[in-house]
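#structure-requests
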Amino acid sequence: MAKRSPLQKRLRRLEVRIQRNPRVQRAVRNGYARYIRFVERTTRWQYLGLDAWGPEGNRDPMIFCAWHARLACTPFVGPLIGRKAKVLVSDHADGQIIAELLRAVGFEPILLQTSRSKTGSLRAALHELRAGGTLGMTPDGPMGPPERSKPGAIILAGLSGVPIVPLGYAARPAIRLPSWDRFVLPLPWGRGVMSAGPPLSIGRDELGEEAVEAACRRLDAALDAEVARCEAALKR
């Protein structure tokens, strides 16, 4: 790996100080939440598969999953189908930006400790599911690798008996940010598609190491299929 120049190091230290400044963090969080809500209101949306989980559909507990890169608008799925949910969110600065939007649309974040044990966060998530609630997760978050599920959602589904519902969305116009996940940021006054796919059930007998890995790859495929479904619908 190439060494950073002294100027690059100073700029990086400045960037970190800015990111950790409470006023800057608050301004970014509020600005992002307002922007995404504005985009959601000015976009012409098409919805695929959401009726199955809406007021006239299945009201059982579920685990919503979406790729981290597709997180900008998927929080609006909850209000669309009349569900409030708790969402596992990283305690990193970027996670807190998402948390502000979640609170704005009626979700309650469960902070996932990225530098310490995650046991408490996962226990709170499991309690929510066993109480009949709805949980939201990005299985490749908080820092990747992108679009490759980690075991958390699979383990929670297996222990709780609650199915995973894969979500997708696509929008035009949109830009992809130079972040680790190439985050999809939609622009106003465009078209968008949101979708929910068939539920993925995980049995307690699938919690062994090899079975969990296989289930993770099934979840990868399900999430990829929803994104592809949304992208294809935009082209029609």
